């Protein structure tokens, strides 16, 4: 896998797939092979004409190790706690792509209570959990990605 950065666009080229572009406004530290965190809006922009689930599936298959967060920071204290933990742990897990989905904007991704954390290893779904604080999330990330 190779990576190039041009004008805020990250281009990731994979042997298995063609080119995948993620447009993000985050700083990418040199040597990191993936973007760190993207919103679902960003994924949709790069998958014009695809349905929501297909766009998310494509992004997960491309990135491999993914944590998908579904929640509402504005309306849910557990969502805020979990999102704060994600922000603090991003740099500890550079091989994980964190995808955030607003359950307010995309209610079709909400199932049961929020927040939900869905873990994918090498593009394969592993498990789903509810709200996690910093220590719990760190332990989960170590379990699946180290």
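Sequence proposed for the structure above (146 residues):
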């Amino acid at each position: 896998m190779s990576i190039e950065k041009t004008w805020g666009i990250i281009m990731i080229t994979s042997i298995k797939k063609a080119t995948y572009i993620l447009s993000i406004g985050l700083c990418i530290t040199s040597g990191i092979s993936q973007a760190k965190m993207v919103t679902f809006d960003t994924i949709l922009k790069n998958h014009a004409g695809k349905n929501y689930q297909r766009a998310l599936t494509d992004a997960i298959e491309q990135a491999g190790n993914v944590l998908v967060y579904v929640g509402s920071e504005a309306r849910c204290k557990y969502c805020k706690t979990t999102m704060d933990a994600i922000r603090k742990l991003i740099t500890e897990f550079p091989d994980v792509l964190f995808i955030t989905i607003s359950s307010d904007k995309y209610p079709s991704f909400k199932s049961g209570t929020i927040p939900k954390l869905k873990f994918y290893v090498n593009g394969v779904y592993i498990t789903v959990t509810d709200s996690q604080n910093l220590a719990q999330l760190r332990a989960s990330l170590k379990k699946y990605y180290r």
